[in-house]
Structure formats: C-alpha cells, structure tokens
User: Which sequence fits this backbone?
C-alpha cells in the first residue's frame, strides 16, 4: 500500500493564529482528527515541529554553508509537521488532508513517499541503508 | 530514502482545475467544473474513508440494513453528478449521509402506499428533518417497539464537525461488521458484503480481487441483503451470549480476505497485496473498535507478520519463493515491528492466553525473529503447533506441525504424522499433503515415491505459480538407477 506524507505548512500569520488558539481546543481538534486516522487504520506516523524561532537555517548559497538563526526571513511558508499515511491512493491522501484541522492561510502539501524497494538494490549505499532499516524497523 | 527523488505524486497536482485538489478550495466561489474522472476519483476516496460510517449511520437511522446499503449507493451515484457541477462539498460525508437519508425517506413514502406503518414513519422522519436538520429519534425499529434510546439525535456539534456522533458511530461500524459477517450468510456473501459496506470497495473492485465477473459479486450482495432481511437480522450489536461466536465469524471473514490476498487460490499471481492490505486495514479498524479482545490483536499480528514477507515471497518473474529460500533482508521490518507489538497486546489483554490467531501469529513471530531457517527456534514452533492443535484442531495444523517436526527432529518422525493424516483421509483432494510428503520423501532419498507425490500435488494445485514449482521439483529428482 503506498505511503503519502501530509506536510503542514504555516505562514507567519497562520502560525500566530495557531498559537493564539486555546491549547485545549487545538488538542481536541487535532486529537479527534488523529483518532479518525487511527480508526481508519491508515496512520503510520505523525510529528509536529517546535517553534521555527527556535530553529536554525543552514544556507548553501555561498561557497561554504552559512548558519543563521531562524525564522527563515524571506520564506513565506514554514514547515510545521507531518503525517505519514498508508492509503490506497493519492486521492485518499488528499481527502484526509481536506479533513485536517487547519488555520486559514496555512497549507498542506501531499507527497508520495517512495519505498526503498524502488531504488537500485545492488547499490552499496542502498544496501547499507536497507540494513539500517532492518535493524531499526524503519522499512 | 532521503532526498533526490521526483515522485509522480509531487507533480500531478499541477493540473489545477482538473484535479480533485482544485475542488478543495471551494469557498472562493470558483466552482471549477471538474472532469468526470476527477470527481469519480474523489468520490471513490471519500467512499473508501466513510462507507462504513455512512452505511452504519443509515442502517441505524432506518433500522433496515438492505435499504441503508441501497440508499447509500444512490447517494454515491448522485454525488458523481452533483459534485461535477458544484464542486466537492465542504463535508462530503455529510452530503452523502444527508442525501442517503432523503432517499430513505423517499423509499418509506413509496412503501407507505402499501403499508400504514411506513406512512407514519415517513411523516415522522420528514418532520424531524424539518425541525432539527439532525438525525431524528425514529426508524422502523422504534415503530417495532425496540428501544428508542439507540436513536438519539447526533448533530449537536459545530457545523464543521463530523456528521455523526463520534461515540455512537463506533457502535454503528461495529454493528455493520457483525451484520455483514452474520452466520445466516454464505461465506462468499460475507466476504463480498464486508468489502463492499465496511471496506467501501465497488463490486467491480471486489470482482477483480476474486477474479469473478462483476455481476456475480452484485448478485451475491443482492442475495445477501435479501437473506438478512428475510432472516430478520436486527441492525445491532450481538447479545452478550452470542458475542464470542459472532466475533469469531467476523475475524474469520477478515482472515479469509487476507489469505486470498496472501496466497491467491486461483489465477496466475501468487499475491494480491491490495486485497491483503485491505484486510489489514479492516482488522486495524476492528482493533480500534475492540481494543480489549485478544484475538483481534492476534489476527492483526498474524496478518502483519505474514504480509511482512510479501516483498521476499515472489521472484523477479512472480514465481513463489519458499520461506526456506527467502531473502530475509527483503522482509518489511516495520510490518514485523507492528506485528510483534500486536502479538504482545494479544498475549496481555483479556488474560486468557493466546487463541488460534494469536498462536499462529506467535509461530510467524518465530520466523520473523530468526535470521535464517537454521537459526529458527523450530522446537518452539512445534510446541506452538501442538497448542494450536489443542485449541483449533485441524488436519492442516497437524500437517504444519509435521513440517516443523521435520525441521526440529528430522523427516522420519514428520513422515509418521503425515502418513497418519493420509490414512485418516482428511486432506484428500488438497495439494498440501502430497506437497509436504513429497518434500519429506525427497529428504529421505525415496525419490520414486517423492516424484509420485509431487506430481499428484501439482495435479491438485489450483495456483499456476505453485503448480509450476511442484513440477520443477519433481523433474529435478534424480531418476532411479
């Protein structure tokens, strides 16, 4: 069954609105949505990211990487977290995204997550990665 | 694999207006007319997610499972037309449920021409709709004097909330599973009905999965609905005293769906992974609904651990690769991890030890934990098969025990078990017994007998891929001097 990642993308404005939402209210909305995913048997993983202000950016545009404090400055959309779903089709992933609790202005990007089986199996690095995935159950 | 890949999923949405995503931004007034195909795909996705809850809610609303399924299908057909015109509504499930309820009321009105009870019911339902816009405390069951407490209104929440009561809907889905797997139905009908109403698959998809013509599936479903109506099966959770047996029936249907996907009984392909994963999805649903039932966790563990081997079970040309020869590096370790976790829950909840599914999962876990055939704890597998033979005696279990005994103690004691089975005549007509016997005789160097058994197994085997392997093994045996 294909895997899709639902990537939450906030803007500064939608992020401000999100953090001004009462925490309990947000927990309930998100919790209810998560419960739906669990009951549908499609949830593989989900994580949310800490405040972008606490993050750093490594910029590769120069000759050597330059490390700057977050937020991202000119970037309009901030990666906020993700869901990993195992569903029958991209349409089903889209349908779940339509139901996700959201803040106006934010976006959700949907991307298929290729399996390691799709990479050349005789490549040394793929073999090593596969070994790590076997050890840790990340396949 | 991090980075660097361009997947089809990343670019397909650039089509804009023609994609279902285009419809996901409705409130801006751009009711972009979508292609029929895009609407069809959206409806299909919605239906997969919501079929069980919609049919479940409609069945409770009407007290009539067959009618609920009919009106749900009508709602889907209407959605295909309406959503192409107006775009996908903000709550697709709510739209389908409301439309289904209207069609149910229409049906009651039509029936009211023949039966006064329905006239009264249609009137009540219409009034309820007009006054509250919510699901109303009515239904045929109420008229028949059943408890009206199970028909309380649901839509007391915000408009953007779910169209159903999040607590009530779990019982509805559970009742739906029990109804679709009801013992009055023939086994094939239970499978078709479960995939259709719980899994949200179309008749055509079910037909493809089982390699039968679509009209055959449609006929099975129609007959099943009539059988349920004729037997007066109520849309409800089974009474406490029947619950164990009825749950067993549900688990057995899910397992039949899984095994058909994991070892296709007919056709050219050994595996139908989509069908197997559908069974896993349905079992996960059941686990979420009945977290206190050990055997539900046991079945999930068994399915996950079996599916973990799928990537290694077929060779480049789709030919089966036996457990002995599988590249265990290709096993899906995430599935193994999920399976072992489910097995852990199966052994802790309920406090009655492992049941038949849990024991089979424990056997699969022995394989999953072993790095090779040689490193496998065959002694433990023999013990687990003995335990399984006690709780669920079956000649197939004994045959599998014989295979494990051969690995733990050599082919001779295993052959004794197999010959005893053959003498009992329990597995006549199945290719399994001569397959195992042929293997044991090969190991014992009794090639002429081995060849005869393998060839007989090939004659009895209905899977083309497995048959080819059996014939190849028979042909590879050295000819006697």
Assistant:
């Amino acid at each position: 069954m294909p895997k899709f990642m639902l990537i939450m993308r906030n803007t500064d404005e939608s992020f401000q609105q999100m953090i001004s939402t009462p925490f309990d209210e947000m927990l309930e909305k998100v919790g209810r949505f998560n419960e739906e995913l669990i009951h549908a048997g499609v949830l593989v993983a989900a994580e949310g990211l800490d405040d972008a202000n606490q993050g750093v950016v490594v910029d590769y545009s120069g000759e050597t990487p330059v490390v700057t404090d977050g937020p991202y400055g000119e970037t309009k959309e901030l990666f906020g977290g993700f869901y990993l779903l195992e569903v029958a089709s991209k349409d089903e992933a889209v349908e779940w995204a339509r139901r996700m609790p959201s803040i106006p202005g934010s976006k959700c990007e949907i991307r298929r997550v290729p399996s390691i089986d799709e990479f050349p199996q005789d490549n040394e690095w793929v073999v090593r990665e596969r070994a790590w995935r076997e050890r840790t159950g990340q396949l | 694999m991090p980075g660097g890949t361009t997947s089809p999923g990343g670019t397909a949405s650039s089509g804009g207006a023609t994609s279902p995503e285009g419809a996901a931004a409705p409130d801006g007034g751009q009711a972009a007319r979508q292609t029929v195909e895009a609407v069809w795909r959206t409806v299909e996705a919605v239906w997969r997610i919501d079929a069980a809850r919609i049919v479940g809610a409609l069945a409770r609303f009407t007290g009539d499972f067959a009618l609920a399924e009919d009106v749900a299908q009508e709602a889907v057909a209407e959605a295909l037309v309406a959503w192409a015109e107006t775009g996908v509504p903000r709550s697709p499930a709510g739209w389908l449920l409301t439309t289904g309820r209207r069609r149910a009321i229409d049906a009651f009105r039509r029936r009211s021409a023949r039966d006064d009870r329905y006239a009264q019911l249609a009137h009540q339902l219409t009034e309820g709709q007009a006054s509250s816009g919510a699901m109303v405390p009515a239904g045929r069951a109420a008229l028949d004097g059943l408890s009206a407490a199970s028909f309380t209104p649901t839509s007391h929440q915000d408009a953007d909330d779910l169209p159903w009561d999040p607590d009530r809907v779990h019982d509805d889905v559970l009742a739906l599973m029990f109804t679709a797997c009801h013992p009055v139905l023939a086994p094939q009908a239970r499978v078709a009905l479960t995939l259709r109403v719980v899994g949200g698959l179309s008749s055509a998809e079910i037909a493809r999965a089982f390699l039968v013509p679509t009209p055959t599936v449609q006929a099975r479903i129609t007959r099943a609905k009539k059988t349920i109506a004729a037997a007066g099966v109520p849309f409800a959770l089974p009474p406490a005293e029947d619950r164990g047996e009825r749950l067993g029936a549900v688990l057995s249907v899910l397992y039949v769906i899984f095994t058909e996907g994991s070892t296709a009984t007919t056709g050219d392909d050994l595996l139908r992974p989509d069908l197997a994963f559908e069974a896993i999805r349905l079992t996960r649903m059941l686990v979420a609904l009945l977290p206190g039932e050990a055997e539900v966790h046991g079945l999930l563990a068994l399915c996950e651990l079996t599916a973990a081997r799928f990537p290694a079970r077929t060779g480049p040309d789709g030919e089966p690769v036996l457990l002995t020869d599988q590249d265990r590096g290709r096993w899906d370790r995430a599935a193994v991890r999920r399976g072992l976790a489910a097995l852990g829950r199966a052994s802790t909840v309920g406090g009655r030890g492992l049941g038949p599914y849990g024991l089979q999962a424990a056997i699969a876990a022995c394989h999953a934990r072993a790095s090779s055939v040689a490193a496998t704890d065959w002694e433990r597998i023999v013990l687990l098969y003995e335990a399984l033979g006690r709780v669920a005696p079956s000649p197939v279990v004994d045959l599998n025990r014989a295979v494990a005994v051969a690995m733990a103690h050599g082919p001779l004691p295993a052959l004794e078990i197999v010959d005893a089975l053959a003498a009992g005549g329990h597995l006549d007509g199945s290719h399994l017994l001569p397959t195992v016997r042929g293997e044991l005789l090969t190991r014992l160097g009794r090639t002429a007998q081995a060849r005869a058994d393998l060839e007989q197994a090939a004659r009895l085997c209905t899977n083309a891929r497995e048959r080819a392997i059996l014939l190849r093994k028979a042909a590879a045996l050295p000819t006697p001097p």
The radius of gyration of chain B is 26 Å. The interface with chain A takes residues 1, 5, 7-10, 12-13, 20-21, 24, 41-42, 44-46, 48-49, 88, 92, 162, 166, 170, 273-274, 277, 280-285, 287-289, 311, 329-337 of chain B (CB under 8 Å). Residues 36-62 of chain B form the longest helix (27 residues).
